[in-house]
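G., before I forget:
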Amino acid sequence: MPPQQAVAALPARASSNLRLGLLVPAVAAVVALALLPVFTSGYVVYVANVLLVYVVLSLGLNLVIGEAGQFSLSHAAFYGIGIYAAALGNKLLGLPLVGCLLLAGVVAALLGGVIGTIALRMRDIYLALTTFAFGEAMQWLFLNWEPVTGGPNGLRIPPSSLFGVEILNDKQAYPVVLGVALLMLGATVVISRSRLGRAFRAVRESDVAAMAMGIPVRRVKIMAFLLSAFYAGVAGGLFATFSTYIHPESLGFQTTMTVLTMVVVGGLGSTGGALLGAVVFGLISELLRQAPAVQEMTYGLILILFMMFVPRGLAPAVSRWVRGRGHV
Amino acid sequence: MGMRSVRAALLGGVLAMAGGLTALAQEVGVTPDRVRIGMFAPLSGPSAAYGQDVLNAARMWFDKINREGGIHGRQIEAVVEDDRCNANDLVAAVKKLVEQSNVFALNGGSCSAAVVAASDYVVRNRVPLVMLNASGDGALFPPNDYIYGAFSISQHAAGGSAVEFAARHFNARRIAYVNHDDAYGAWNLNAAKFQAERRGAGLNVQSISPNITDVTAPMVRLRAANPEVLVIMTYARPAALIIRKAMELGYRGPIVVAVNATADLRQMVANGGGPEAFRNVYIQEVLADLPGSARLQWVYDMYRQAYPQLASQEGRPQVYMPYGLPSAMSVTRALEAAGPELTREKFLAALQGLDFDSGVMAGPIRFGPRNRAAQQAAIYIKYDGATMERVPGSFASDWRFE
Amino acid sequence: MDSEVLFLFLQQGIASGIVSGSVYALLALAIVMIFKTSEVPNFAQGEVFMVAAYAALFLIVFYGLPMWVVIPAALLFTVAGMMLFEAGILRRVKKALGEPVNLVIATLGLSFLLRGLVRQTGLGDTPRSFPSLVSTDPVQIGQAMLTRLDLAIVGTAVAVMAAVFLLFNFTRAGRAMRALGMNPKAAALVGIDIRRTHAFVWGLSGLVSAISALLIAPKILMTPEMGHVAILAFAAAIVGGFNSLPGAVLGGFIIGIAENLVGLFVSASAIVVTPFLAIMAVLVLRPQGLLGGRPQMRKV
């Protein structure tokens, strides 16, 4: 085999070994996750629920930014729309849990499609800033559309029901949240490997080249935007299953930046990265509550150090480490 | 040993164990010599100034009680969490305290909107929650069995009282009213409208963002309506901007500044444009006297003694510090009144019956069968930047939860 | 509303809008000059502005220094801090991967770091006032009420804008910065010291931010959250065209005036949403901003 080919073949073989090697721990992890409520406190399960919501948010943001290369900064707005849609679907229409989740995703996706159609005339920084402005405007709307969102009083979310059973605590909600999060994770993998996923990446690398390959660039971009909004909406619906209250304060730019940080720190463009970033950064944030005095500074330092020393994110670093260990 | 005696011994053992178990099945967070209280407040980030020293004040009260021998032989053990003043983190803190630290009761919350986020959880799990300095109207009305708060004053009481003062003391028929477009603002405006209607006064309202940097537009609009009294219900920074702008626009009528902004009066005068701007300013006060006055000196002495290192730092104690005391006093008094066989039920019943003078606040700390807001009284003081003159009488909000 | 009041509101709105707009314009300049040369929207812009004001306050409160020492010291401190950040941190981030999003997150990290630092000083708990060099006595222009301080703010801001304009158009350093913005590789080929120019731009941006901080701090009062104003500067930059310095200035005044007019004619609570509606309106109608050139294709 000529040396060049050998080099080219190596990563593929290594990754198929890697895939097998990862299957067992992955299954073990899912089983352990499923059993979490049995051997931990409700608080730990609450933290797990929140982390899973962040996972779904990160998967969605990674689709539009990481896969399709379109800088969208309005994730918190779609998340909020999902929360309000689910909460109101439950409160006013008496929809069961599954209905609420679907409603949350669909309403967010519809709006995402509309906003995408308008905003995607722009690119790069202009797209980022338009979507940022849209996000801020939505937060203002949440705060001022009192008849619907409760305005500054916030909105109480009644317990959702699944097959006639009311979900009253985090442990009851957890199987739903975990199940849906895994479903979304699976869907992400499928999308990423489908023709659509390839089209996303082609658009990310170059609009012109993608067009030359016969990819309907504009439709693909809007699709990425819409899908990402759907994920955010579902994440909002999940939040509404284990929460009792929502206030517009927590639906601002800061939430978008938190999710963006997760995606970048995890590894932009990689599904595993979005997963890892959400879990690791979510945990760091929760653990930092123990060190209030230096919290902000520590968080800032972590961001800077990551960008200096782990620029491609955790996922590539971890897989390099796993592969390296495999060789030894 | 015969079969029968073995069986009897076994049976006896089982019974003894069962007996032991019932003795052990005490209330959560309570042992014969300890009672565990879960505390939470913003200890980091932008709102830390609302929480850190308030929580410290509550803790120093618990420490004092502990040094004096505790309550019914029990020492108070405080477990502290940072709630970052936002809903998600506050709920995480509360769940950790309840489900992991197994506390008997909660004593925390400085941020009103965030504390409301935990209210359904607290009620569902039947855990007593005594707020720190949050007004938390959203969790107090309608009243439920588990949540007690508004130790400084409820926002409904603050807004209604300010309008009552404007309408009665100045006989005003046109009142300008500036509040925030957040939860606080929604609550105080609710009662203010009620009060204005009752007094037959017109209320010209401008609701501004807490982040506002330029108050020209809302102030010019209010000025155009030619008000007789200007009521400011905002936080400290916007309030100072408004006082200064009122002077710039040539408004010379009375200005009433609500308690939300009056914590640090010296700074307020410096920020608001100096004594010149304070010719006709009245401040709403809920403390028994002014911060640093002789009557409250013991509070500041106690703080200095409890936290000598902290007290030597710039900006300490933080201005809201005293509010932590009436809250902690309510906890210890209710523990006392609940008797030696402590249960949550008894503790809650005792809370409901509290009625005492804290020596810190303007009015008594008083709950009741339908009342969860501790402190309702506000006094008014004419303040020209240096001297203070108490306006006789008290001005109460007539708004009641229906 | 009768025509007299309408006319009064209009005058006041425009006059006050020009005052706050001039500060937004300065901050927008600071953002755009960095973006033009480094392609980084500096998310720590507001915190740089805030730290400059607190550095000055720190010297006044703890050392009792006079203003003629405090002001240059605070300006110098901000400039040095910005250059250090560029040379010590951003350059490494750029070398590590160089994706714009990584640079953005590094500036986001800086914003957290700076806010945490200021809180450590104990000055951040209550709103503080910054001593004003100019009196706040009212001045009437037409029917609009302003203060002497307001006039000083506009005057200084315009002077700084003019200085920046001259610097960019008529000096060697200015030409180097413009060349860097157009094409870094070509700039290096014609002998421009890229590193020095980058550091210079960040320093200059720090200087402009610090000047605007010291100008407006007496007017808006100080808290560690005062960097919030930078959002309005971002809005100004977008409205004007994100890669255009004159656009930033124009955008600043538009946002300032729009805020005031909305506050006067619509409602006070709609003030905060005005800049975002302005952004969306401008970008939908003219995606590159009012004075922005066509956005370039930068995919290589």
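Confidence is low (pLDDT under 50) at residues 1-16 of chain A. The radius of gyration of chain A is 20 Å.

More on Monday.
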